[in-house]
Structures are given as C-alpha cells and as structure tokens.
Design a protein that fits this description.
The complex is a heterotetramer, with 2 copies of chain A (247 residues) and 2 copies of chain B (312 residues). Chain A has a single domain, classed as Ferritin (Up-down Bundle). Chain A contains 9 helices and no strands. In chain A, helix 2 packs antiparallel against helix 6 and helix 5 packs antiparallel against helix 8. Chain A is mainly alpha-helical. Helix content of chain A is 68%, strand content 0%. The model of chain A has no long low-confidence stretch (mean pLDDT 94). In chain B, a hairpin with a 4-residue loop joins strand 1 and strand 2. By secondary structure, chain B is mainly α. Helix content of chain B is 68%, strand content 2%. The longest helix of chain B is centred in the middle third of the chain and has 29 residues. Chain B has a two-stranded antiparallel sheet with strand order 1-2. The chains are: A mainly alpha (247), B mainly alpha (312). Chains A and C meet through helix 9 of A and helix 11 of C. Chains A, D: It comes from Rivibacter subsaxonicus. Chains A, D: One of its GO terms (cellular component) is cytosol.
C-alpha cells in the first residue's frame, strides 16, 4: 500500500471513530445532566446507565481515533481540547434535553440508527473497529429496547404525553436525516432499515411520522447547532483551566 | 407483654427480625424513620455530586462519578425496598421529605464548589458514612441489615475512589493542591458533625441500643473517623483546619478542638447553604415528572385492558 | 377612481401619505405586511446576536453588543408604532408571526456559531440592511419613512461596530483570523440573498415602485452591496467564498458567481438551520410571559378602580 | 502615612471596588440572558438598559480596582481571568433568573441596597470612589423605581403572580442579609434604611416579609453558591480560549 493510500484510509478511519465517539460522548453528556433530576428514581438509574455505556464507548472510539491519528492525542486530549468546529458528533446528540419526551425521542431516533450502524461495523475490516462495535452493539440493543418502550408509553399514554411526544418528534425529525450521510456505510440501506423499525414503533405509539423529508446537516464538517459550543464550554471548563494537569 | 419479651430475647440472641415477625410499634416506627431518612439521604446526595458530572476533568473520572451517583440511586432503591417491608409506602415517605416533614442527612446541604469537592466527599463523607453504617450490617432488622451489607461494599469502593482523586490533586499542580486544601477546609467540620450530636445530647440511644438498631454511640464513631482520617490527611500533605488538633499518646487517639454545634443545629433547622435549593431541586424533578409517571400508568392500564380483551 | 388618482398624484409629487389620509386598501395592506415583517425581523434578530452576549470576550464588546441588541428592540418598537398607524393591531400581527403566518427576514434562521459571527452580522447583515433601508427613508408613507431615518442612523453605527470587530480579529492571532474567515464563509451567501430573488422572479415590484414603497430593484441593491463589501473583505485580508468573483473593469462592478436560490427558497419555506428554534424561542418567551402581562393588566385595573373609588 | 497603613487602605479599597464591581458585573450577566426572552418587548428593552448600566458601573469599579491594586490588571483581566473563589459579588446577584418574579424580586432587593450604598459612597474620602458612586447612584434610582414598581404589580396583580412573587421572596430572602456585612459602611444604619424601604414596597405589593432573620453568607471570602462557577464558565469561555488575544 502506498503512503498516500494509507493516509487516506487513516483519515477515513479517524473520521469514523470521531463520528461514533463524539456522538456517544455528547449524548452521554446530555444524559448525565438528568442525574438526580429524572421523573422517578428508576429513570435516574436507567438514564445514568445509558450515559455510562455511551461514555465507555466514547472512550474506546476516541482512544482508537488517537491511535489512528498517531499525533499523540489520547481520549482526554480529544474530548477536552478540541473546539466545537472540530467535533463530529451527529447534530441530534447535542440537542437539549427538554422534557422527558424530548430526551426519549432523541434517544430512540439515535438508538435505532446506532444499533444498525454498529451491526454493520461489526464486520468492519479493521478488527479494532469491529471489536468496539460488537461490544457497543450489545449495550445499544438494550438502550433501544428501553427508548422504544418509552416512546410507545408516552405516545400511547395520556393526552398530554401524546401531544408532547408528537411535538418533540416533529422538532427532532429534521436532525435524523444526516445520520445516513455516513462514509463507509451504505446510507440507503441503513435508512430503509431504520425507517422500517422507526415506523413500527411510531405505529405502536400512535404517533404520526413527520412528512418532512428535509435533513438538517453540517456536523460532518463540524458545522453544529448553537447548542454545542455551550455544552463544550461547560464540559471542558475544569480541564482547560489547568493545562497539563493530571486528574 | 409476652410478645415484647420474646421479641427482645430473639434480638439478644442475635436472631434477625423479619418482615412477617411480630414487632413493637415503636420499633417499627423508629426503624421506618431511620431507614427512610437514610434512603432520602441517598436521593438528595445525588445532587451535590451530580453538579460536577458535566464538568469532570477527565473521561475516566467522569465515568467513575457517573457510576457512583448511579450507585447512590441504587442504594436508595434497596433502602426504600427495606422500608416497604415495614408496611410503609415509599411514595408517601418520599413526599414527606419533599414537604420538609422528613429529614435527610444534613451534609448534603453544603455546596460542591470545585472538582476537589468530589474527591473530598468521597474521602470524608463516604468515609464517615461507612463508619456509621458498618455496624448496621449487624442490626436486628433483617432486610435493613442485608441492604447495608451491599451498600457498605459499594461505599468503601467510593471512598477509595474519592481518596484517589485527592491523591491526584495533591500530587498535581499548586493550583490543584490548593483546590484540595480548600475543599478540606470546607468539608472537614461538616463531616465530623455527620455522627450527630455528642452522646450527652443524643436522645433515644438506650432503646435503640437495646433493639440493636444503634450499636455504637455518636462520639465513639466520630472518634473512629478522626483516628482514621487524620493520618490520611497527613499522607496527602493537607492540613486539617483545626488548630487544636493533637495526638493524645496516652489513649492513642487524635483529639479535635471544640465543634461548633450551633452550625449543626442551624443546618438541621433549614439554615444551611443549600437546604432550600436541594429540596427545590427534588420537588422540581418530582413535579415535572408527574406527567411522565401518569403516562406510564395510563399506558400500562391500556395495555392491560387490551390483553384482557384479547384473552376474552 | 378620483381618490386613487389624487393619491397617486400626491405620491408622484413626493408628498408623504399620512395616517389620516385616504389610501387604497391594497397600499395599506402591502405596507402593513412590509412594515410588520420588518418589525418581526428586528425582534427575531435579537436571538442570534443575543446568543453571544453572555460570552462576549471583553467587557467593552459586551457593552456594545448589549446596546446593539437593545437598539433592535427599539427598532421593533418604532416599526410596530408605524404599523399601528395603519390601523393594525400590534399583538395580532405579532401572533401571526408566532403562528408562522407572517414572515421575518430569513437571515436570522442561520446560527451564530462563534464570536466572529457577531462581527460578521454587523458588517454584512447590517450592511445589507442599510442598503435595503436607506431608500425607504424616502418612501411614500410618512410614519414608515420617519422610522427608517432613525433606524438607518443606528444601523450604520452597528455596521461600523461589526466591521471593527472584524478588524480586531483579522489583526489578531491566527485562531482569531481563522474564526473570522469561517464566519465570512458561512454568512456571505445568506447576506447576498438578503436582497430577495432576482428581478425576473420578484413579484409586485411595479406596483410597489409606483407607490414609492420600493425604490430600487433587488438586483440593483444587491450589486451595490457587493461593490461595497468586496473591497472591505480585501482590506481585512479575508477571502470571499466565491471562486467566480471577478472585477468587471468595463462596468466598474464586482461580479459574483451563481447564487444557489434553492437554498433561499428552502430557508423561506422553513427549512433553514434555525427556523424552528427561532420561532420556538419567541413562542416560549411569549407564552411564559403571559402571566406577567396578565398581572400587569390586573394591577392596573385594580389601581384604576381604587383611584375612582378615592375620587368618588 | 506608613507603607503598611497605605497597603491596608489599598487592600480595603480594592475589596470595596471588587464588591461593587463584581456585584454589578454578575447581575448584569444574569440580566443579559433575558435579552430576546422577556415577557414583552418593553421589558426586553428595560432589562437590557439595567444590564447596560450595571455593566458600565462594573467597568468603572474594576478599572479602579486594577489601578488600586497596581499589578497591571485591567477590567478584562479582572473579569475574565479570576476564578469563582476570587470573585466578591454578593450571593444574591448570582442567583438564577428563574421566572420574571424571581428576576424582579432579586433586582428589587439588590437595588434598594445598591442605592443606599452608593448614596453613602458618594461621600467617600477617595474622590474616585465618590465619583463613580455619584454617577451610578443616578442610574440606580431609576432601576429601583422600576423594580419596586414591578414587585408591586406582581405582588398585587393576579393570584398566580402573587403566589409566584411571595415564593421567590421567601427563596431569596436569606441572601439579603449578607449585603449589610460590608466594610467601611455602617451596616446597622444601612439595614434600618433598607428595611424601611423594603417594608413599604412589600406592603404596597400585599406581600409578607419573610420571618427568617438568617443570612446566607460567604461571598466576602469568595465562598459562593454553586451557581457562580457555571456562570463564569460561560462568561469567560471565549476570552480564556485565546490567552493574550485582543478583541
């Protein structure tokens, strides 16, 4: 393999690791904010569980990203010392928590994608990628079961919960589209599988699939929503106040 | 009565009381209050530490902190489970706390002002909690004793993690070390007060001791904490904020200066730095979660109805 | 009709139309829509810039930005005042906007992603607004024309402040300069599109021109903006993100490449990066403010009743 | 004057400038967050106005603080490069915006104090202090008129507004006490004047003065509530990301 080809492979692999790692990290950060503020103790525990799984995955992906990059950046260098324009998380992961419906719909739309992507990455030619994907896939199956279950409960619960859930679904829907614009993976096939799964859950939840086909995008180029820079300001503040410190 | 005598004899013989056993009303009431307050403490205790999850300075520390706060929610679950075996309603007890009719540990009415507070809470607050709780693993009420066994195991893990944060800070930059000292300065006395008022002022102790709900006096446990902690502080190179602290070679104990009990009673009374906010945060979560809990119930009811319909 | 003829003759003679004058229903309707949309734009325009007030990197810049956003609220006030002279209800118009039945300037559906966006908005967006608005100072409707005089004065101040931010960034560190270039890359085309669709596709222009509501065509104004801005960008040392940009020596104009009008129509349709959020933020403020407005009214009513009581 | 005495005077003057300057800065920062989110356009304008006045005052106080300190720190060095433990703003100024009642009650309790303090500082022996105080005093008279007016409107408005305002008054009351623990000024006299004024407005507003006499404190030693470090993380993020940059 020529040097050029190798570096192209590495760049694409690096991008993939950031895509997955940043998405997991940012969503985990959002979920962590529920800790102590959930609607029931059991939910606090379950949300924290998901946050922990995602954080664990983020660490694996970012460590691998650093390894692939070969510039000496470890998971913390990547998490704490990049600016928002350098983050590659999906836009949907940085959307605010909102109410419980918003958190759960966001989670469901993401989980459904996450599971399918990890399934495909489980057969990636790079064994390190395949190994992380296989481990994460197991965890995500559980996340998806839970978030789908909540979407059904809230959609098919009370009048109020139905209205809130439909509103949040309409709100978040434009952020779903960019999930399928991923290198290395067949976006169309992914979308078809995702659609089938999401449609089934929405039907159970008595929710209407939004008609809009428009997809918000930009995160692949580091063009995020206004939310990310605020999230990072908080996440990175202590680390950045003490450059070079060990914790 | 004969029942009371038999009850006390069983306790004296170290036979555990189980939920279906006969027990004196006062025993049930005392235990209900004690376990519920302990459960509430775990729930409220999630807040001060939760305050730093978003800002943990490394991903590993963030993981550990998330897991710790999750454990606290789990402890609350065990404890609410134990208290329910006494015939109490978990929601009713929780609402008593929300309304300010039941207490939780006063230590959580202090703010967490820097990352070093997370280390200090693990080291001192969990350290004190363990000393308080280890004897409870042998307490007379079976479900409580068993819950405490699980909890103590996890707490000692937390305590080591907290101390580990302190080690990193104290081996770190001058700013990190200063952060650690500042946190110790603020948490030391509140931690010392976690064992409750001095023995002379502590009420109900005799009965609780006879029932094996309380196995050591406040001052005994406090001394144990001090003897354990002072050398740790020295090992870290931190100074305990007590000019009167001295080693008493005769007894082999560290003796501390006078405790400002007025602060203790003030915070219990509601005048701690964060009492209002902690309760407000828990009330907000509960109130804003109402529609979610209702939706879950409504959906469960619909589903049950449908499955009956299908069965018919 | 005779009235219509007299109306047009007055306009042709540059006599201002005043609120009590007779005017054609279509003139009133067109103006109401135009002024209201302009007012709504000022209100929504507070959001993208307001997003950086809390993070302004120096106290002086924070002051200037706060004052600017306040000016925008003031502009909205003048404009709602002007539209009320046409017999419209300010609240009704505002609620039309909240419900998505009335538009505001599409430019505010783009996000502000860094501090440099604040400079760029002042420089480009206010720059474009001024070019759009200066002719309106001479428009036929008196109250609108007078409001525009005040507004244009302030806008040109804002434009200079925005440019001044850009100068600082471009003379600053490489990271600052890169931030400035990045902001220009994102805002350039949306700013160019602020003048509306090309003349061929613009509707109602002829009638608006005859009424002296619209004095120049979209493309004329756009060209003016480009000719003004390109040298400024060069002065800053920034690159305009248009490979086809070229100076046409014959005409003395800068010629830009093809505009992606599909983006323009998409954003107008509601599919811009922030349409949903901007409307949601305004609706939230309005809804959450309802109890405050009600309280103020209730108190005023009580006070009025008491003063009548006292007078009786 | 001996060098020791001079440095004592300076330290106390420095502390005074930080007390006033930080309080104005932090409250201004809170008010700025309302911009574009107020209950009516007129309120957006009025709140911004107050925010601007306070920010202007903060700049004067912090510049003077830097001058007194003589260590070469200007207003921005003091605003952007100190940590929460070094800030000396009153605790009440860092309390969250909450709803409009909370913002207005916070403002009223602070304004009533602010006006009285500035009145007294108008006769300060240091002419620089006296000049800033005189200028600020004029602005604060207007702030106070407005915030008192709103407390009355909300207290004596609807049932809902009354309940919200009373609740927020109870919530914020413990943060009022530390305002009177100020060096250089007779706290008891200040408190008496403040009490008289506040009581009159509360009576008009049909609100009950909270019975508690307990005072939350600590800001004089830089011991703040959990809110300040978050507020600063946001306020300082851009400046700190670019050390040494000019803006």
């Amino acid at each position: 393999m020529s040097a050029v080809a190798a570096s192209t492979v590495d760049a694409s692999l690096f991008a993939l690791c950031l895509r997955l790692g940043d998405s997991a990290l940012i969503l985990s950060q959002r979920l962590g904010a529920w800790c102590g503020h959930g609607p029931a103790l059991e939910e606090d525990i379950a949300l924290t569980n998901t946050a922990l799984d995602l954080l664990g995955q983020a660490r694996l992906w970012l460590s691998l990203a650093g390894e692939v990059e070969g510039a000496g950046r470890d998971e913390d260098a990547l998490a704490y010392w990049r600016d928002d324009r350098e983050f590659r998380n999906l836009l949907i992961t940085e959307q605010p928590n909102g109410d419980y419906a918003q958190t759960m719909v966001r989670q469901f739309l993401f989980d459904a994608w996450h599971r399918l992507v990890l399934e495909r990455l489980g057969e990636h030619h790079d064994s390190r990628v395949a190994a992380i994907a296989a481990k994460a896939h197991k965890e995500v199956l559980y996340h998806l079961r839970r978030s789908a279950d909540w979407v059904v409960r809230l959609g098919d619960g009370t009048e109020e919960s139905h209205a809130r859930t439909q509103a949040t679904l309409d709100l978040l829907w434009p952020h779903a589209g960019e999930m399928f614009l991923i290198d290395e993976i067949d976006g169309e096939g992914l979308r078809a599988d995702w659609d089938a799964q999401v449609d089934a859950v929405l039907a159970d939840a008595t929710l209407c699939r939004p008609a809009s086909t428009w997809a918000q995008q930009g995160s692949g180029q580091g063009r995020h929503t206004e939310h990310l820079s605020r999230l990072l300001a908080e996440m990175q503040v202590v680390a950045r106040a003490h450059p070079g410190a060990h914790w | 009565s004969a029942e009371e005598r038999a009850f006390q004899e069983a306790i004296d013989a170290d036979i555990k009381v189980e939920p279906r056993d006969w027990m004196p009303a006062a025993y049930r009431k005392t235990l209900t209050r004690q376990i519920a307050q302990h459960a509430h403490s775990e729930v409220v205790g999630m807040l001060p530490e939760g305050n730093w999850i978003s800002r943990a300075p490394s991903l590993k520390r963030k993981c550990v902190l998330l897991a710790k706060v999750q454990d606290e929610a789990g402890h609350a679950q065990y404890l609410y489970g134990a208290v329910e075996t006494l015939g109490a309603s978990r929601d009713a007890l929780y609402e008593d706390m929300l309304a300010g009719r039941m207490k939780y540990s006063s230590i959580f009415n202090y703010p967490t002002l820097s990352w070093a507070d997370i280390g200090t809470i693990g080291w001192l607050v969990d350290g004190a909690a363990i000393i308080n709780q280890i004897p409870l693993c042998r307490c007379s009420y079976g479900p409580y004793a068993r819950a405490m066994v699980r909890i103590c195991k996890e707490e000692s893990f937390h305590q080591r993690q907290g101390f580990d944060i302190m080690v990193s800070l104290c081996k770190g930059t001058p700013a990190q070390k200063q952060m650690a000292q500042d946190a110790l300065n603020r948490w030391w006395w509140p931690a010392v007060m976690m064992f409750g008022p001095p023995d002379g002022e502590s009420v109900h102790s005799a009965q609780s001791a006879a029932w094996k709900i309380k196995l050591f006096s406040n001052d005994e446990l406090r001394q144990k904490f001090i003897d354990q902690t002072v050398p740790q502080a020295r090992h870290l190179g931190l100074t305990i904020p007590d000019a009167d602290l001295a080693f008493d070679a005769a007894s082999g104990h560290w003796r501390i200066g006078a405790i400002d009990w007025s602060e203790f009673y003030r915070v219990i009374k509601g005048e701690g730095p964060c009492n209002v906010e902690r309760l407000a945060a828990r009330n907000k979560a509960w109130d804003e979660g109402a529609w979610v809990r209702e939706a879950a119930l409504a959906h469960a009811a619909k589903r049950a109805k449908r499955s009956i319909g299908e069965a018919a």
